[in-house]
Each structure stands twice: as C-alpha cells, then as structure tokens.
Amino acid sequence: MTRPEEAPRRREEREEEPVLRASGLTVRFPGQEGHGAAVRGLDLHVAPGEVLALVGESGSGKSAATMGVLGLVPRGTEVGGSAVLGGRELVGLGERGLRGIRGRRAAVVFQEPMTSLNPVFTVGWQLREVLRVHLGMGRAAAHARARELLELVGLDEAERRLRGYPHQLSGGQRQRVMIAMALACDPEVLIADEPTTALDVTVQAGILRLLRGLADRLGTAIVLITHDMGVVAGVADRVVVMHRGEAVESGEVGRVLGAPRHDYTRRLLASVPRLGASSAAGAPPADAPPAADSGAAAPGSGDAAPALAVRELSVHYGSAVAVSGVSLTVARGETVGLVGESGSGKSTLGRCAVGLQRPSSGSVAVCGTEISGLSRRRMRPLRRSVQMVFQDPASSLNPRMTVGAMLAEPLRRFGPARGAALDRRVEALLEDVRLDPDMRHRYPHQFSGGQRQRVAIARALALEPDLLVADEPTSALDVSVQDEILELLTALQREKGFGCLFISHDLAVVERMSSRVAVMRGGELVEEGPTTRVLSDPEHPYTRTLLEAAPSVDAAPRATG
Amino acid sequence: MTATATPARRLLRNPAGAFGLALTVLLVGAGLLAPLAAPHDPAAVGFDRLYAPPSWASPLGTDELGRDQLSRILYGLRASVLIGVAAVLMAAAVAVPLGLAAGYYRRVVDPVVSRLNDAVMAFPFLVLAVGLAAILGPSPVNAAVAIGVSQVPNILRVMRGEALRLSGEQFVDAAVAGGAGDAAVLFRHILPNAANALLVQVTVGIPAAIIAEAMLSFLGLGVQPPTPSLGVMLSSAQSTFAQAPWLAVFPGVALVLLTLGFNLLGDGLRDALDPKGAQR
Amino acid sequence: MVRYLLGRLAQAALTLLLVSAAVFAGLRAMPGDPAVLLAGEDPDPETVAQIRAELGLDRPVPVQYLVWLGRMARLDFGESVRTGLPVSDTLLTRLPVTLELALLSLLVAAVVGVLAGVAAAVRQGRPTDWAANAGALLGLSVPNFWLGLMGVLLFAVVLGWLPASGYVPPSESLTGNLAGMLMPALVLGTGLAAVVMRQTRSSMIEVLGSDYIRTARAKGLSPARVVLVHGLRNSMVTVLTILGLQLGALISGAVVTEQIFVLAGFGNLMVESVFTRDLPVVQAAVLVTAAGYVLVNLAVDVCYSLVDPRIRIQGGRS
Amino acid sequence: APLVDPVAAADEERSSVRAPLADGGELVVGLDAEPDALDPTLSTTLVGRQVFAGMCEKLYDVDAESGLVPQLAAGDPVVSGDGLEVRVPLRTDGVRFNDGTPFDADAVVRSLDRHREMPGSTRATELDAVQDVRAEGEDTVVLRLSRPYAPLQSILADRAGMVMSPAALEAHGEDFARDPVCVGPFRFAERVAQDRIVLEKSPEYYAADEVHLDRVVYRPIPDDSIRLANLRAGQLDVIQEVGPTDVAQVSREDGLVLLNQPSSHYMGMTINLRDPDGIGADPRLREALALSLDRETINEVAFGGVYQPACGPIPPISEYADETVLACPGHDPGRARELVAESGAEAPVPVELMIPNDPVNILLGQTVQAMAAEAGFAVRLEPTEFASSIAAAQAGDFEAYISGWSGRPDPDGNIASFFTTGGANNYSGHSDPEVDALIEDAAAATDPDERQELYDELVPRMQEANAVVYLYRQRYYVAHRDGVAGVELYPDGLIRVAGAGRTAAAAGDGG
Ligand SMILES: Nc1ncnc2c1ncn2[C@@H]1O[C@H](COP(=O)(O)OP(=O)(O)OP(=O)(O)O)[C@@H](O)[C@H]1O
Ligand SMILES: Nc1ncnc2c1ncn2[C@@H]1O[C@H](COP(=O)(O)OP(=O)(O)OP(=O)(O)O)[C@@H](O)[C@H]1O
Ligand SMILES: [Mg+2]
Ligand SMILES: [Mg+2]
Q1: DSSP bridge pairs for A519
Q2: Does C56 reach chain D within 8 Å, measured CB to CB?
Q3: What average pLDDT does this structure show over C45-56?
Q4: What CATH number is attached to the domain comprising B258?
Q5: Domain that holds residue B207
Q6: CA–CA separation, D389 vs A20, rounded Å?
Q7: Who among D245, D367, D380 is closest to B240 (CB)?
Q8: Which residues surround the ion ligand 3 when the cut-off is CB under 5 Å?
Q9: What does the buried/exposed string (b/e) look like for A520-555 if buried means 16 or more CB atoms within 10 Å of the residue's CB?
Q10: pLDDT of residue A526
Q11: Is B56 inside a domain boundary?
Q12: A468 near A488, Cβ under 8 Å?
C-alpha cells in the first residue's frame, strides 16, 4: 500500500506460481473422530495479486480450512494434507515455525471481531503491537502508522479510536480494526474471513477497493471468505465453492457465476437476493397485515399500541454522542428496516429498544409500556415480549451452556413446556433455523460463525415475542440459508404479527423484509419512509450514496484484464 | 462422543480426574469406615510401647501414648474430612450467592456485602474462634462453623471478582434480554463461568481448613482428645520430631494425599465442566 | 473517580466502626475477666474490683465503647493493661515488621505463584504442569509451622547460614534485615504461592482458549508475549483478587510464621493479647488491620478497572 | 528407645557452671512467655520475675539452698516478742538506685506503702498483715502487723521486697513500668512489647565491678522447640524452660550446658466439691480417681521422667518437708475400682476434666484419662484456654480441673488460698472450719517446730479430702551455651545474670 514503487507483476506469471497452495487439506475437530471431518481433501491455491473468493454454505468448513492452514485451530484439532506457503510446508510445522509466518507473511481477519480483539487493551495498543514486533517501529512511528491504518479502513476520529477499547466500538468499527491490524505488515497472503459483514455498503465498497488495490499494486494474495455474491462478483478473480467440507466447484468468477456447474452453486446463486427484485415480486410487504400498509402513518393507528415507539431518543457515551434525537415507530406485524453508516448508532438504538441500554434522554415504549425508566424487576415481565438477536452472536452465547440448554432456558421460564415436549420444541427451533437437532448438545465454540448466528435467532424466536430487534441477523449466513431464515421470519411474522426492527447492511435483504426503512447516519435518523419509496427514490444524499454503492451479483464480474 | 458426554463421564475419562476421584473416595471412605478399617482402638494407650517405630503390630508405629498410629490416622482422616469439607462447603454455600450478588449489583448490594466482608476478614480468626466456642460451646460442629465463617471472605471476594468481570460480558446482557431473572443470570450464566475459580478456591480451602482445625482443637473447640485429627497429630508431633519422625511423616503424607485427591478431583471437574477444556 | 474514592472512604469509616463495635462486643462476650488475670495467681476480690474500676470494666459495655470511641477520635489508643506500655508505641514498632513481612511474602507469592501458574497452564498436562502442581500441593498441605521449623533446623541450626530469629531494621543493616526476613518470607510466601498458582493456572487455561489469544497468535507474536501480555492481563482480575486476599490475610494472619521466627508482628500481637485479654491492644490492633484490609480491597477494586476497562468503578448495575 | 536416660539427667542437679569470665558483651535470654508490667507492685508473672532478677534487688533473697538471705537488708528481720512488730535493718554502704538516687529507709517505706495501697496492687494481699510501715532513721524500717505473720520474710524476698526509686516514682507514678528504676546490677534500657526487654550495666550498682556483662536482652519465645532451636542456632545464650522431651538430648549435647533445679511448681487436679452431680459430691469417687493415677508413669509418659511425682502442697525443698508431709497415698487401681463399686455409681463414671490447652498438658490429660479409665472413669477432656479456664474455675463451672501453681517458698503460700473457706484459689469449694483454723494457726506460728507439727496434721487431712489431687512437681531446666558461664539457677527458678559473662575462652576465640 505504501510501496508504490513496486509495480504489479503480470498476472499470468502469478497464476503459475501460487504463493499458497493447499492440497488434500483435512481439518478434523476434536470430537469429530466418528463423524466426517470439517474439511475433507480440499485443494486450494492463490497466487500473488490474486483474489480468491471462498464461498459456500454456512458451516461448510471455510473458516476451518483457512485457520487450519495457519494452525489457528483449537488444541487437539487434526490438520492433515498439505499447505505450502512460499515453498514452505505449513502442515506439521509447529508453533515455532508458524510464528515467523503469521502476521508478517500471512495475516488473518477473523470472522467475529468482538471476541477476536483483546478486550483489555486499547485499539491503538493492539495495532501498534504488530508494528513494533514485526517492523521494529518506535512508539511514535507506530502510533502514526496505526492512525494511518485506521484512516485507510475508513474509521473517522482515528485519534480517539486509538485510545478506545474494543467494547467501545460498533460492530463495523471493530471489523475495520481487525482489517487494519491484518494489513499492518503488508502480508503476502491475506486471509479475510467475512471481513465486511458488519459494514454498510459504502464502507464495504471502500474496503473492497482497498483489498483489490493491495492485490493489484502490491501483489498481495487474498483469500476472501464471503457470502455476498455481489462482493464475489465485484472483487474476486477466482472462486471456490465449498459444501459440507469439500470444494464442489472452482474457477474464474465470470464462469462460475455465469455458468455454474454444480447443483449447489446453482442453488446458491438462485437464492441471492437482488435489490429491486422483491418489490417486483412484492410478496412480503403486500402480504403483511394492514398496519404495515399504513406505512409512515402507522403510529397510533388501530387500537393496539405500536410494538415499539421511540421518541427523541439520545444516547451519550461520555462526551461522544451515539444516538441523538431519534424517533421511530414499529407497528405490530410490521418490519422496519434500519440501515445506515457503520457506527451510526443502529445497535445502540436496538439495545435501547430492548431495555439493555439506558437512554440519556427520550423515551422508549414497547407495546404501549414505557420502559426507559423501568427497574430491572419491573422490566422482566416485558422481556418475554421483546427479544433481540445480537449483532455479535459469538459473545452473546454463554460459553458454558449447550445450545440446547440455552434454547430451553427461556422456554422453561415463560412457557409451560417441560420434559419431552420441551425437547421437541428445542429440536423444532433448531430445525427452523436449519440446524441439525443433534447439535443441541454442542457448546457455542463448536459451531461455525453462521451456525452461532442461527442459534441466536432461534433463541430470540423461541418465545414468540411481540417485538423482535434483529441486529444484522443474517450477516454470517450464506445466501441459501439466509433465504430460508428470511422466509421463516416472514412466515412467523405473518402468523404471530410481531413487530420487527430489522438492522441490516444488505439493502436487498432490507427491501425484501421491510415495509418501511429508516436510514441513520452519525447518530441521527436522516430518512424514513416506505421501503419502495426510499429505495427507489431516496431523498437524502446519503441514502443515494448507499444505493449506488450496493454490490450486485449481476454487475459484470470483474474484468480479468 | 465428547460433545455429548456428560460432565460426569468426562471426569471419569480424564485419568488425572479419575485418579483424584478414586483417591478422594478411598481416603474419605477409609475415614468414614475407620471403625471397621482400623486395626486397633485409636484411644488404646500402651505405656509399654511409647514411640514404637513401625512394626508388624503397628505398621505406622505408635505415638507418645503408645497408641497405634495407623488406627489414629484412619480416625484422624474422618475428623479432618468431616470438619474441613463441611466447613468449606458451608462457607461456599454462604459466600457464593453473596459474592455473585455483590459483583452483579454494584450499587446497592456490593457496598453492603463487601464492607461486611471486609469486617469479617478483619476479625482475627482466633477472636472469632474463641468467641464462638464461648457462645456455642465446643464441639466439632462448631469448629466447622468457625472455620467456615473464616473461609467465607475468601470465597466471597473471589466470586465477587468473577461476577464483576463476567457481568461485562455480552452473554449476560443476552440472558437479561432473554428475560432471565436475576437468580437465573447469577446461577445459570455467571456461576458456571466462575466455576473454575470457585473449584480452585474450594479445593485449596480444604487443606487450609484441616490445618485450621488443629488450631481450634488446640483451643478445645474442635475434636476432643483423645480423638485424633490429622491437624492435631501433625502439630503435636512437632516437639518429638527428632525422636519419632514417623509421628509427623505419616499424618503428613495422609494430608498430602487428601489434598492431592481433592485438587486432582477439582482439576478434573474443572476440565469436565469446561466445554473447551474437555476437548483437550 | 474522586467521588468514588470519597464514597469508598466513607464506607471504610463505617466498616471500621462496625468492626470496632463487633470486636468490642465480642471480646467482652468472651469468658475470662482481664482484671482477674491482672490480679495474679492469688487474687483477692477487692484487688480485682479495684482493677476493674481502673480499667473501666465496671461500666456498661455500651458506655465503655463510647468512651473508647471518644479516645480513639483523639487518637489516644490507651495503654496495654498487661505491660502498661502505650498501645500506639507497640503498634508503631510492629508496623514495619508486619508490613515488610507481608510485602516480601506477597512478592514471593506473586512471583512464584503467577509464574508457576502461567507455566502450568501453558504446558497443561505436561511435566511442567505436574511439577508446578506437585509444588503447590506441598505448599497447600505442609503446614507453615512444619515448613518454618524445618527451615530453622536446616538453615539456622545445622548449616548456620541464616539467623533463626530476630528482626534487624533495614536502617540498621540491610543485609542483616534481609537475612532475617528471608526464611519467614519464603515460608509464608510459598504457602500463599500455592493458592496463587492454582488460581492463576485455572484462569489462564480458560483465557488461553479464547479467540483473542488466537488473534495474538495470528499476529505472529512470540509465545511468551501471547501468554504473558495478552493472556495474563485477562487473568488479572482473578489473580488480583487472590493477591488482594493474600495481602489482607498477611496483615493479621502471619501468626504462626511470626511465632516460629520470633518476629514482633501484628498477628502474634493479636493472638497473645487475646489470650491475655489485653483488650486495648486487641481493639487497636484489629482496627489497624481492618483499616489495612479496607485499603487493600479498595486498591484491588481500583486495579480491577485498570486491568479490565469493561469494569468501570462507578458504573455497574443498580 | 528414643528417650535416653532422662532420669539420670534429672537427678544431676546443677545450679551453675564457673569459668574465667571476660568483661563486656551481651547475654540474650530466651523467656517462655511475655513478662507483664515491669512494676513490682503490679507484676504477677513468674516470667516477669526473671527480668526483675536482673534489675530489681529485694530486701531479702533466696540462696542456692532455698534459705533466705539479706540483699538490700543488712540482716535478718527482728521480730518483736508478740510477733506484731518487724524491724528490717537496711544497707547503707553507698547503695544507690540506678538513676543515682540514694537508697534509704524513706525509699523503702514509700515502696512498701505503694505496694499496699496503690489500687490494683497485687502485692496488697501478700502484705495484708502489714498495718503500717515507717522509717526509723536512715537505715531501719519498722513494719507493724495486725497479726503475727511467719511468711513475711519470704514475701519480702519477692516483689513485695523490691524497692523502687523515689525519683522514678515521682516522675512516672502509676506508669512506673514504662521506665522502671530499682537497685540492681543492670538498669532498664528499652522494652518492645512481645519482642525484647533490654537491660544495660548499671554504673550506680554497689557491686558494679563484679558485673561482667554490658547488656542483657530478654526475648519472649513461648514455643519450647523454637526457643531451643534459637539457642542452638546462637540467637540466644540462655533459655528458660527446656521442654521435658528435650532435656535428655540437651544434657548430652556438645556446646550446651543444662542447669537443673528442683522447684516448688506443681500441677494438681482440683475437683469441684460443690458440683452435686459430679464426682466431687462423693468422697469415694474422689479417692478412687486419686488412687487410679500412677504418678511415676505419668511422669514417665508425659515428661519423659524428668519431673517429680507430687502428692502434697509442700515441696521437698521446703524446710517443713518431712516424711508425713511428703507421704503419698499411691497407686491402687484395685482399690479404686472397689471404691467406684461402693459408691454405687454406674461405671464408667463420666468425668469432665478441664485442662490447659498446651501440648504437654493435653498429653498429661490423656494419660490421666487412660489411667482413670482402668478404674472405671470415662474422662472427657476439655482443653481450655487459660483465661477462660480461670473464669470457669471461679464460677465453679467445672467438674475437675488440672491447673498449676508456681509455688511459694513458705508452705502457707501453697495452702491457704486453696483450702481456706472462701480462699481466692479455693476452686474446689473445700470448706472445713477445723482445717481453716489449722491453716491460720500454722501461718501465725513463729516457732518452726510448732509449725512443723501443725503441717504434719494438716497435710494428711487435705490428702484425705481429695479436693486437690496433686500430680507432679516440675523441675527447672535452664540451658545455656558453653561460651557463657556464671549464670545461676536457684530453686526459685530465677535465672540470675548478675555474675554471668562470656567465658574468657570464648571471648578469646572471638577476638
Ligand atoms: N460502550 C461504548 N463506549 C463508547 N462509545 C461507544 C460504546 N458503544 C458504542 N459506542 C460508539 O457509539 C457509536 C454507535 O455505535 P453502534 O454500535 O450503535 O453503531 P452501529 O450503527 O450499530 O454500527 P455497526 O453497523 O458498525 O454495527 C459508535 O461510534 C461507537 O463507537
Ligand atoms: N471447535 C469445534 N468443534 C467441533 N466442531 C466444530 C468446531 N468448530 C467448527 N466446527 C464445525 O465444523 C464445521 C465447519 O466450521 P467452519 O467454521 O469452518 O464453517 P464456515 O464454513 O466458516 O461457516 P460460516 O460461514 O457459518 O462461518 C461446522 O459444521 C462446525 O459446526
Ligand atoms: Mg466461518
Ligand atoms: Mg452495530
């Protein structure tokens, strides 16, 4: 990035000598002895300057494969086969050998940034550490460079962020810190595990440009794990499709997207939500109960109080303002999409709506009950009717509880189900979110990112709430699973008539799910209105930028010249 | 399958944990069955066999009153295990809920509980013990109570620290958002994640309690002579170490083994309860 | 922060009041009349009554307490009923001994315990772990009086390398001071180190399994850095709790060690004074140690928020 | 056998070793407890007397044969014919207190008055018989008594006979203990509670040129084994109380010298006669319990044979210790069982025995327990901390109680307060007007033969009552390093350091 003198080499050359080549790669987690391994006989190669997209079903072994290569798997995991990086065999190399490679020659952006950043050190400290350890920079130089890196990934107020701790950042901000950390030493190979799931489309576009630029200008080889076919189409050169631990298809992006050979790839592509498509199909919003139809006029209409009514809500963290003067209503049976810039206060708003965050001012009413001043005890009866899917599923699941226990807990608390009936209900919930009911005995760390996310969704749905706050509920899901989950949500909503605040960066998904959309930026609500109107005819310039930046599979795959 | 095995089965599958369990069961069992297992009456003095070194008749030698040491160790295990374990368990029963609550409700509960805890900590153990003996009257049960009270602050502070640390975690928020009542949050979500620290504190507390029992017995608050306890045997062997080292060595070994058993068992439980540890 | 500290100091004052009242009541509930002890082997009732009146023991306990509080408020600690020496002098001469012993053994406990705990966690299930655990086991189950006595026999009586007892103020001779404190600090410290080691190990095992440790490894950091910087800092809440507890325990709990090495510290003072029913001494000493506990715990609480930014000292739930 | 010929060690009495001494140096003495206030008026502990022995001389002193000799007095007291006036002649040959104040009769009067009158004085009882004290010129004090009182001279050989500097009393009043000043070879320099008491050589002492040491440091170390370890390691030069299990070893050990004296310190089992439900209520049970005990074996088991069995209040070293007084009912388990049967009590007869909570006494208690079991008693031991046990004993809240008495040189001091109705130490509740009268007569008898007769009558009666079952009499074992000599141990148990010093040989090595 900062070595412009190094001209990009020619592509043909690169393809001939991949910098990273995995062949017959197998990853078997402890406890999988009897079952199939998480990754089975995967072949993979990526050349300098090439962007390889790794796509596939959630839980198909994408993370396992890439982390296995670098030995970043839990102790006791068996990694077999071969993975050669720059002429060096990595499998069986041992911690000492791998240490020289990690961070410097091969860097990683982890899928779940919250748990992957060290909670007790400042962002600046964690960034500087890489620079000082690998590049021997002095404190001041490292600081300046860290700042530069943050600006590169589009974080504003870099100076303040450097002093902050991970828990003070929004999901997208953390993700960008992870990216900055991985880029710090100009690695030869960059493994980015769903690096843009928490980013709004404009920021995402910037990051993707940045990655593409790295590949082109510095010859960095990039393995990009993603679910977003638009992203694949936009930046990747080649793509490998994984299914159940094996690669089912690979090839040039244009070819795979244009003429998929494998069944699974075809299904995958068919499930990709397309912006503008759902309004044409028109299904969910039109089918939604009457309240949804009244759109912006909904608040107060009908006899039932709205599921959520937020008035003039502001939240301050010390001197920083996360949310300022936001008013928003979600009627029963309605889904309101909340989109906006990363760090604009969406999650904060969501947390206020479920009573986890005390607003600095303003009011929040759920189903007609004012909750902003309620004590925890008074709040508890309301909990059943308000549920949240957290943006960061990994940290929202209790590491010491099996997911079965976690799902059964609220059911037992609020529901009459006991014993076998309870077990059946838990199994049904898991099946609803397309998880194997046998997985209920597993602990959170034994799941893939997308699987965890589905557990979190199942937990929120267990109690059939009146208001569901879903904070990026499908960001870690591949499009086929996402499709099914979205279908599930719509069907449930039709049946139970709950109100839903749906926070997402994926405009196509928002379009599909919501009758109305609210757009946030810098803590303020800049635009709100019926989905069709906002997405087709945005009033605010920021909304316009968002729409323009939205990636699309249908966009011409990246020119290969 | 490890993924599906219950903690109990995982404990048994872990060699160190299983050994710890076996050792604990063996020693505790030997203590409880002392009346059956002991070759002699532990109180039977023999003025003609004072300080006899180990022999066939008395495999571990005899003590300053010619009593059979093997029998005394078996009975001593019984007293020490009952008092030590009971004390620590009582302490944990009190300290765990209070400590968790203090770490979780930081505005109201913490100042009250923590300051009371400071006060109990500052109370010298001896004043406490002598005072309790005076008020309750001497008995092994009251000894266990006194030791238990003195162990409360330790467990309480550890649990409070853990609750403090864990209440910042998002899964606690998630549980609250899921409608978990405070008790559920504390005991189903925070406590299991604090189990490591608790297990360690309990397993290190037991030998400390056994040694403290010796001091209380000395004050007349614990076991009544000639009833033996490991702590009493150890401390009374002090002055005759040069003449009769076996009087110190064997009870010492018994205490070490008991501590070993509890600690291995604790480690085993730790690993069995830790879903990540279980995989190693 | 300042407000928090002020609040805590106010709480501390209340705690001390509580402790003093409890100790006052507790001591008076104990059987054994100080006046009888003072009257000697052959006491006559008149003398006993005189002594009781001298000591104010004939007044109702609440009145005695208020009188005592009034004196304390004027920093008048009174006199030992047994030796007739001013209590404040006694406490002042003991404070340095107690503090030095506490700090040195805490140092031993922290260094040995934390390092061994970390090493054991990193090498879980391997020989290092076994060795560290075996050491801890001995530390836990070998009573201090044994360790101390054996130390004295070996190093002072047989080898003659270290003095068996005696406190030399550091101002007089630093080497003499250290020679005298070495064994006590080691004996006391190793016992505590066992507890520190066990907790550190347990906490580190958990931390080492977390995602941010994976990140640190992915950064290509040396194992030492991963463990000692990224891992240890996250275990600090647990480790600090334990160290705080130990320091607290050391202030008044070093009785046995003080006896073996004949050190004039607080632990011994309190025990002896309880036995001789030297009430003014016990009351004052308990108050001073209670103040020590309160300060240590306050320091630990402040440290919590320093090592883990998610724990804010004012904040939290209500 | 692990314990080698302890009895031989015990029999060989030795009160001091002599060797050429060098001047200078310091002597560190390990005491077995913390002394109480260093104020002769208030002091109650034996260990406190150890320190006084270095710095406070008395009107009379005890010599190596337990005889009374003048110290600050110029000669024996002169008692008037009716026994009511006692004149004590005083030394005037340039005796000065350690602060330089001259020693005279006024000073003696002032001290005696303080002993008698200061509130809380523990001397007041001892001087109960003294009605008035006055100076007669510079060199005589006259004590007027309310009744003839034979033990007076021996009382003046203890703390009641210590004379305090009037200047110091002026300066400190009741707080004399903070900076005590007497006549003595050493003067008080410093005291750090429970750590050390430091005395330094007094230039004012009348025999200063016979004092070798510059300093004497007393350090309380309650644990026997730790005290001994410190002696062995060289941290201490002299220790009080070698534990009975260590005596044999120390007597043979190179580099250590064992001093050994008989004592009047005894342990006895007091039985509560007022307890209607206990064995105290039935003389047969009391006798049975006494007969069940084999004192030789007790001595053997609990003390490795280094102490002495005791059967009565008057120690063998007393001038009144004749055969009758020393006679022992002995050990007769058969008779004991018969008595239990006769009493009609259901065997085993439960007995709650309160014992001091130190290891030696707990061992003693268990030995008693085992022996009593053979006679049909089920003894339950209750180790009790000292202060609590005194409280229980005074309240009569016990069945049997093992406790000690440090012993007085005069027999009366070992008898009166234990057996007189209402006596301060009469925990058993023994009350017999005839015995009361005998005790009073014996104390008043100034003629030794008459006293002897009275005690010969009294002691057997006491033994019959079995209110106190005497168990054993301690011996004093003091050890010092062989680089030290001139330390003297008398039967009063006090370690006299006035003439002690570093041996010239040791000093030569050091130099
Ligand atoms: N605990 C905190 N302390 C200080 N600032 C915080 C804290 N939590 C969040 N913030 C800040 O508040 C702002 C809003 O955060 P929020 O998480 O609501 O954003 P978001 O809209 O959900 O972003 P994203 O899409 O990236 O998840 C951000 O700038 C963030 O840095
Ligand atoms: N520690 C573990 N123990 C056992 N099974 C595991 C463990 N980690 C992951 N798995 C399983 O291995 C499979 C592959 O997981 P992986 O994380 O590679 O999926 P992924 O392709 O990255 O999915 P996603 O897109 O949802 O992140 C999943 O089925 C998951 O349940
Ligand atoms: Mg993944
Ligand atoms: Mg967010």
Answers
A1: A339, A527
A2: no
A3: 84
A4: 1.10.3720.10
A5: 24-37+67-279
A6: 84
A7: D245
A8: A 63, 111, 448-449
A9: bbbbbbbbbbbbbebbeebeeebbebbbebbbbbee
A10: 92
A11: no
A12: no
H-type alpha helices, D192-348: 224-233, 247-252, 283-292, 295-303, 323-326, 333-343
Q: How far apart are the first and last CA of chain D?
A: 43
Token match 């009590």: residue?
D345
Tokens of C18: 């509580």
Is there a contact between A79 and A25 (Cβ–Cβ < 8 Å)? yes
- Distance, CA of A385 to CA of A308 (rounded, Å): 11
> Quick one: pLDDT at residue A9?
41
Which residues from chain C sit within 8 angstroms of residue A394, using beta carbons? 211
> For the segment B173-232, what is each residue's pLDDT rounded down to a tens digit?
888 888 888 888 899 899 999 988 898 899 888 888 888 887 777 777 778 888 888 888
CA nearest neighbour of D415 among D368, D468, D348: D468
| Cα A91 to Cα A69: distance, rounded to the nearest angstrom | 7
Is residue D391 scored above 80 in pLDDT? yes
A499-516 pLDDT, tens digit each: 999 999 888 889 889 999
Q: What is the mean pLDDT of chain A?
A: 84
pLDDT recorded at residue A292: 39
Residue B88 placed within a domain = yes
In terms of DSSP bridges, do strands A189-193 and A106-109 run parallel, antiparallel, or are they unpaired? parallel
Q: How far is the CA of A477 from the centre of ligand 3 (A)?
A: 9
Contact B189 A410 (CB under 8 A): no
Is there a domain that residue B5 lies in? no
Mutate to test the pocket of ligand 1, among A170, A174, A314 (most ligand atoms within 8 A of CB): A170
The number of the ligand 1 atom at minimal distance from the alpha carbon of A169 is 31
CA-based nearest residue to B155, from B123, B197, B188? B197
Provide, as residue numbers in chain C, all residues whose Cβ is less than 8 Å from the Cβ of B238: 145-146, 149
ipTM above 0.90, yes or no: no
- Distance CA(D275)–CA(D395), nearest Å, equals 11
Q: Return the SS3 of D29.
A: strand
Domain membership of residue B47 (yes or no) is no
Instruction: Report percent pLDDT > 70 for chain C.
Output: 97
Check: CB of residue D380 under 8 Å from CB of residue D351: yes
Nearest to D477 by CA among D380, D373, D360, D371: D360
pLDDT tens figures, C213-241: 999 988 888 888 899 999 999 888 888 88
- Residues A486 and A513 sit within 8 Å (Cβ to Cβ): yes
pLDDT tens digits, residue range B54-95?
888 888 888 888 888 898 999 988 888 888 889 999 999 999
Q: How many CB atoms lie within 10 A of CB D8?
A: 12
3-state secondary structure of A53: strand
Which C residues in the span 59-118 are in contact with D, Cβ-Cβ below 8 Å? 79-80, 82-86, 89-90, 93
Return d(Cα B152, Cα B95) in angstroms, integer. Answer: 5
Q: What is the mean pLDDT of residues D335-362?
A: 88
Work out the pLDDT band at D69, boundaries 50, 70, 90: very high
- State how far residue C101 is from chain D, nearest Cα, in angstroms: 16
Report residue A148 as tokens: 């530069």
Q: Ligand 1 pocket check: which of A160, A173, A351 to mutate, most ligand atoms within 8 Å of Cβ?
A: A173
Q: What is the DSSP string of A240-283?
A: EEEETTEEEEEEEHHHHHHS--SHHHHHHHHH---TTHHHHH-H
In the predicted structure, residue A474 carries a pLDDT above the cut 90: no
Residue type, D205: Y
Q: What is the pLDDT of residue A93?
A: 83
> How many domains are there within chain B?
1
Does the beta carbon of B197 lie under 8 angstroms from any beta carbon of chain A?
Answer: no
How many angstroms separate the alpha carbon of residue A485 from the centre of ligand 4?
20
